[in-house]
């Protein structure tokens, strides 16, 4: 991405990849892919499968299905709320899906003309060729030897019929001329369609690689209203704006053992618990609200981006006051409150303060969490350390919890590869050779030519070819996240970042209590014990309790 330095002086564009480009680019690249949909779904979201469709010749590929599913889920009318995609720019992903759909729509307009002229007008010949192709597909589902033996014979039948009709048609006049070319014109259409499909596939695969390399930004002229009555462009722009606003919500959801949606599962927990007693010589300490301590901790956490040691500052950190609601671990939908306490998708500051002071003990409503978030490894790793402050009777409890959202499935980072297969060498059957396959085969040409006339009827096309179902509750980042603990570096970063946060929370708490005439000796001792526990932090399933 290219950002502008808005400080006084000459405006010189600077290249700044930002802290969350890798995941954004990987997700965006899926919109341009041409790989098999079923294999992709099995790898990234096993168990969440969409509709199968009427026939495999209408089956969409990854890019077609992914783009339509994401656009419908993020911009569709009356859509459900989305889970925030921390470490990602959801708007850019959706814009790439829209841009890819525009490219395919332009291709389908040309293919539709070819299909109607050379296919629909010469339907008997086109159906005979399709029947032969269907037989070839059936042979391939059996064994390679059977296809190699009988496949050419199946395709030879319509070829011989076409030659016979062209040489000696059974009718005279107009219908005789029609019979001569009824099987030949579909072949001409197939040649024209193949040229269009190859050009489209090359263009989309080049964009796939460019997006992963960060060399391509989406271009959406249709999202700019041309006049006041341009309702389609206005609705698209409003949908994208709503997506951006929803990304910055401060209302999240705790889904039991699945952790906080958008932040990941809880893997660590540290507690500072002690009674509040006044210092010696005083009858009582200065009263305070829990928000006062939260604000003190917030100020201290904001200082993590500074260090007295060179390169010791924590990169990519942000501090946020979050409001977290509880949903079931198997919930398929989330919701956010409305009313005067909400400003769009965010809860207003005064409502957050009241929520922190009420603490929510014994209540079903939302609760306040102070969150420190770190977007690391170009967005591949999102570590969030949450702090809660509660006072029951005269006992203060400060809880620190670590949540980690790991990288997305590695298949999203795959670049386009040359299609190839291995076969035994002639005369040396014990050795193998690699055979490069054509970029587009005959079945792909037929598939796109058959789908093209239905591009204006997406509902019918979905019934014919099937769809891709997205995991719910859906968030572009959390839907395909994996565990970070298989990576040594990501595991180390997740564990190490919790230590300075806990230290900052301890220091701020003791300093605050001392300012309010609270005896901090026992708190300091508890803090030393807590720091000793931090010497050997190990992640564990913190939200799973072995209890009846």
From TrEMBL:
Region (Disordered): 1-21
Domain of life: Bacteria
Alphabetical UniProt keywords: Membrane, Transmembrane, Transmembrane helix
TM ranges: 111-129, 149-167, 174-193
UniProt-recorded name of the protein: Uncharacterized protein
């Amino acid at each position: 991405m290219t950002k502008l330095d808005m400080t006084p002086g000459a405006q010189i564009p600077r290249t700044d990849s930002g802290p969350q480009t890798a995941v954004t680019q990987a997700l965006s690249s899926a919109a341009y892919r041409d790989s098999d949909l079923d294999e992709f779904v099995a790898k990234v979201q096993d168990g969440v499968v969409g509709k199968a469709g009427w026939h495999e010749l209408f089956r969409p590929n990854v890019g077609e299905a992914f783009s339509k599913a994401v656009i419908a889920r993020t911009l569709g009318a009356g859509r459900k709320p989305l889970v925030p995609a921390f470490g990602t720019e959801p708007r850019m992903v959706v814009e790439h899906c829209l841009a890819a759909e525009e490219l395919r729509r332009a291709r389908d307009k040309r293919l539709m003309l070819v299909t109607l002229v050379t296919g629909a007008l010469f339907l008997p010949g086109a159906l005979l060729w399709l029947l032969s192709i269907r037989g070839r597909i059936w042979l391939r589902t059996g064994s390679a030897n059977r296809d190699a033996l009988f496949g050419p014979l199946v395709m030879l039948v319509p070829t011989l019929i076409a030659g016979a009709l062209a040489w000696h048609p059974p009718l005279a006049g107009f219908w005789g001329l029609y019979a001569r070319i009824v099987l030949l014109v579909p072949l001409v259409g197939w040649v024209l369609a193949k040229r269009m499909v190859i050009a489209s596939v090359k263009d989309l695969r080049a964009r796939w690689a460019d997006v992963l390399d960060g060399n391509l930004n989406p271009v959406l002229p249709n999202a700019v209203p041309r006049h006041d009555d341009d309702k389609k462009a206005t609705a698209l722009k409003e949908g994208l704006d709503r997506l951006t606003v929803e990304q910055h919500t401060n209302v999240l959801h705790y889904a039991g053992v699945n952790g906080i949606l958008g932040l990941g599962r809880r893997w660590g927990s540290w507690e500072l618990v002690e009674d509040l007693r006044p210092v010696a010589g005083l009858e009582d300490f200065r009263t305070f609200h829990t928000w006062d301590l939260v604000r003190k901790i917030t100020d201290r956490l904001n200082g993590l981006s500074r260090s007295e040691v060179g390169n010791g500052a924590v990169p990519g950190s942000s501090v946020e006051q979050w409001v977290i609601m509880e949903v079931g671990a198997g919930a398929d939908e989330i919701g956010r409150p409305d009313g005067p306490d909400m400003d769009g998708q965010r809860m207003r500051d005064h409502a957050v303060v009241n929520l922190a002071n009420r603490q929510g003990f014994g209540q079903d409503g939302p609760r306040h969490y102070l969150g420190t978030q770190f977007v690391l490894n170009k967005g591949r790793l999102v570590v969030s350390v949450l702090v809660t402050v509660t006072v029951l009777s005269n006992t203060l409890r400060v809880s620190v919890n670590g949540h980690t959202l790991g990288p997305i499935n590695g298949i999203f980072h795959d670049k386009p590869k040359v299609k190839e297969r291995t076969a035994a060498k002639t005369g040396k059957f014990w050795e193998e050779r690699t055979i490069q396959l054509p970029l587009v085969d005959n079945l792909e040409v037929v598939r796109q030519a058959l789908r093209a006339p239905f591009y204006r009827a997406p509902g019918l096309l979905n019934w014919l070819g099937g769809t891709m179902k997205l995991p719910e509750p859906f968030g572009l980042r959390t839907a395909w996240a994996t565990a970070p603990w298989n990576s040594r570096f990501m595991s180390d970063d997740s564990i190490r970042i919790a230590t300075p946060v806990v230290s900052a929370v301890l220091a701020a708490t003791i300093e605050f209590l001392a300012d309010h005439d609270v005896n901090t000796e026992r708190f300091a001792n508890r803090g030393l014990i807590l720091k000793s526990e931090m010497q050997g932090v190990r992640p564990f399933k913190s939200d799973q309790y072995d209890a009846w």
